[in-house]
Amino acid sequence: MELLVYVPKNSSRINYIFNQICGRMLGFEVHFTSKIETFISFQGVKFSYCKKKLGNEIFIQQYGLLEEHGINDVNIMVDYWEDAECPCFFRVSNDSDLAYDIFSASFYLLSRYEEYQPHVKNEYGCFGYEESLAFQKNFLTLPVIEMWVECFKTLLKQKFDLPEQEKDYKVNLNIAVEEAYAFRHRGFVRVVGASVRDLFKLDFRTIYQRLKSLMRLAPDPYDIYNDLITFGKETHITLDFYFQLSDYTRYSKSISYNKRIYHKLIKSMGDYVKLGLRPGYEAINNFLIFKKEKQRWQNIVNQNLHATLIKSDGMNFPLVFEHMNKLEITDDYSMGYPNQIGFRAGTASAFQFYDLNLEQSTHLVVHPYVFNSDVLLEASFNAVETELIRIAITLKRLRLTNRLAFTNADFSMHDDHQKLYTLLKKLS
Q: Which of 26, 28, 34 is nearest to 7 (CA)?
């Protein structure tokens, strides 16, 4: 279905955010016009986005952010919007049919405008959740953009007949394979070194587990791939696996990317799930290393690399997205806070990366996650479970995708992995 928007002057920001909200999220074929006569004569779904109302049309007043260029100081007052049942900002006049310019507010969140502005970096040298507007104003755990869009959709329905969209609630697990095996296939020197280290730490339990695994008296605790595939089939949860192919460093402890057993594992998983690359710590900040790891992945899988996930090392935004765009990676699943539950970009929906430095939309599609298993390093499992179930209720009501990031080690047989399986069943 076509939708016509009257704007006095189009811009790359306007084109981007209207195609996201009206196109990707609401399913319209979006067109723009600056001619009043064209707008008046159009018989389909339409509204105006400008400073003053033209007549009796649906009118959304511009706040002004989408007409600007570059990164400027933005004065933001957050209020509670009763119609949307959540906070919002960029309030406009009473002449507007929506109390807020949701297009400017959504652009601010999706472009990660605040991450371009001066801020205190965290221990990874990245933007921390404490710096975000969403955390400071208590809406980090809400998909506010979708909640705003529901109000906009209700407004359109008052004047136009809109078809129902075919959307369903889904759960998607993005699993980073940072260490393919806990004990096996690591080489004699590394096995001896690890055993000596554990001996000095008096960690006899790990020594015993290592010996049992190496002697084939017990499976490797990280070799849970078949279990996860079976679980996904039983629960209809989608699983995607992202394999790390870094050189061995203090940050990358997996088996060598050259080992045939690792290649065999990756190829066999490709028969059941979607595969991607988990860039190493060094690759996140270095374009040439990233390019090298991409080539390794393609040589093993014999396909072009399309998807990436950065789970634990901090996402150096926007640099790493700029690198992905240059490397022609089309989909990334890293948008979230590793140590905090919530929607980093205010949405659960996929969106294109908008490069504020170049003021243009890119081909890179960002798929945000709400939960990273690193949260469990500091938070209690019960508190996390309660919060995720509460969020899932909202996502089910809005028929959105619930994305969660894990590692294969999270489901290790040496940990209480059954709790995770039980939680995921509750979320599905």
A: 34
How many angstroms separate the CA atoms of 254 and 185, rounded? Answer: 9
Could you write out the three-class secondary structure of 250-308? CCCCCCCCCCHHHHHHHHHHCCCCEEEECCCHHHHHCHHHHHHHHHHHHHHHCCCCCEE
Do 259 and 405 reside in the same domain of the chain?
Answer: yes
Q: What is the DSSP letter of 65?
A: G
Total tally of structural domains belonging to the chain: 3
CA distance 93 to 99: 7
Question: Is there a domain that residue 366 lies in?
Answer: yes
CA pair distance 374, 339, nearest whole angstrom: 6
> Residue 385 sits in which domain range?
170-182+220-427
264 and 201 inside one domain: no
Residue 162 lies in a domain: no
Claim to verify: residue 105 and residue 37 sit in the same structural domain: yes
Residue 165 lies in a domain: no
Q: Can you give the pTM of this predicted structure?
A: 0.92
Q: What are phi and psi of 412, to 5 degrees?
A: -55, 140
List the chain pLDDT tens, one digit each, 428 residues: 999 999 999 999 999 999 999 999 999 999 999 999 999 999 999 999 999 999 999 999 999 999 999 999 998 999 999 999 999 999 999 999 999 999 999 999 999 999 999 888 887 778 999 999 999 999 999 999 999 999 999 999 999 998 888 889 999 999 999 988 876 767 656 666 666 777 777 777 777 677 767 667 778 888 899 999 999 999 999 999 999 999 887 777 777 888 999 999 999 999 999 999 999 989 998 999 999 999 999 999 999 999 999 998 678 899 999 999 999 999 999 999 999 999 999 999 999 999 999 999 999 999 999 999 999 999 999 999 999 999 999 999 999 999 999 999 999 865 567 899 999 999 99
Residues 225 and 370 in one domain: yes
Q: Is residue 230 part of a domain?
A: yes
204 and 139 co-located in one domain: no
Contact (CB, 8 A) for 105 and 86: no
98 and 33 in a single domain? The answer is yes
Nearest residue to 314 via CA among 344, 354, 353: 344
For residues 47 and 116, state if they share a domain: yes
Residues 205 and 247 placed together within one structural domain of the fold = no
| Nearest Cα residue to 47 out of 22, 25, 74, 11 | 22
Please count the other Cβ atoms lying within 10 Å of the Cβ belonging to residue 107. Answer: 25
